[in-house]
Amino acid sequence: MLNEGATLRNRYKILSPIGEGGMGSVYLAEDLRLEGRKCAVKAVRIDPTASGTVIEQLQHQFRHEASILARLDHPNLPKVSDYFTENTLDYLVMDYVPGKDLKELMDEARRSGKILSEFEVLNWARQLCDALSYMHTQETPVLHRDIKPSNIRLAPSGIIKLVDFGLVKLVGKDDSRTITVLQGRGTAAYTPLEQYGEDDTHTDARSDIYSLGATLYHLLTNQAPAEAKQRFLRPAALLPMRELNPAIGVTAETAIMQAIAMHPDDRPASMTEFRDRLLGQSEPTHRGKPAETSAAEMVRANAVWIALAVIAVLAGLLVSLP
Length: 322
What we know:
The protein is α+β, with helices and mostly antiparallel strands and 322 residues long. It has 2 domains: 7-95, Phosphorylase Kinase, domain 1; 100-278, Transferase(Phosphotransferase) domain 1 (Transferase(Phosphotransferase), domain 1), CATH 1.10.510. The protein is built from 10 helices and 12 strands. The protein has helices spanning 52-71, 102-111, 118-136, 205-221, 228-233, 241-244, 250-259, 271-278, 295-301, 303-320, and strands spanning 7-8, 12-21, 24-31, 38-44, 80-86, 89-95, 100-101, 142-143, 152-154, 160-162, 169-171, 178-180. Strands 1-2-3-4-6-5 form a 6-stranded antiparallel sheet, with helices on one face. α3 (118-136) runs antiparallel to α4 (205-221), α3 (118-136) packs antiparallel against α8 and α4 crosses α7 (250-259). The longest helix has 20 residues, at 52-71. The chain is globular and about 55 Å long. The model is unreliable at 173-185 and 283-302 (pLDDT under 50).
């Protein structure tokens, strides 16, 4: 733990702790070089029992991955502005996002006997899908791997920010190797089965889709979904969302339940596809079966015939007028 008032790199003055987890701690800090700027500093733990060679490799890996994160520029992601190593700890500096996280908002609603509204949650979901789609489609795709209500903050402006890059995974271009910023498994209720264990080479964008779907399930029902390992043994452990909250729309429930399917092939193939299903902008596809043509697509495809029919009807009305 860093003490209040400690200064890192002669620039970042620690003001207070924000949070702590198995892989490190996050602090609110003041940037002494840029007056008035507050930032979040994440201290990444390194196994003190590791050999000097291993520590050197981990620090080299950290610098490489931090440089990738620093290139990300999206309104729903905090900007990574600096990274460095000091006293055997790696540090990641990013924008501080004021406001409450979604777990706090969900807990407040629960204490009042309420559930967050679907309209509000879907607005947040749209922003999160856009941010994750941006990450997944980088030249070096970036997976978050720890999406959960407490890692999503609502800024005073109403903008959602997906924070804590602690478990980010960078996917190699040839898909034959992967690089992980920190070894970690995520949080059980939001973690897909393929992300368990030491060998997580089968994780891809659909793993983040699962975690986001599980997060939305929790926000809209006030109940965390059954863990993937529990569902593997007892599929009925996952309750239908509308059984817990009848106010949820069928479209949202269907999309979210597909997102948290146990097998990745049963989930939407991309974050954009999930967003479109969730917001009712497309019809789902199922394992190689093409989606049925939507009403909007039918109108576009037959626009000429529809226009002629309308003209014919109007002409008939004019002829019938006295």
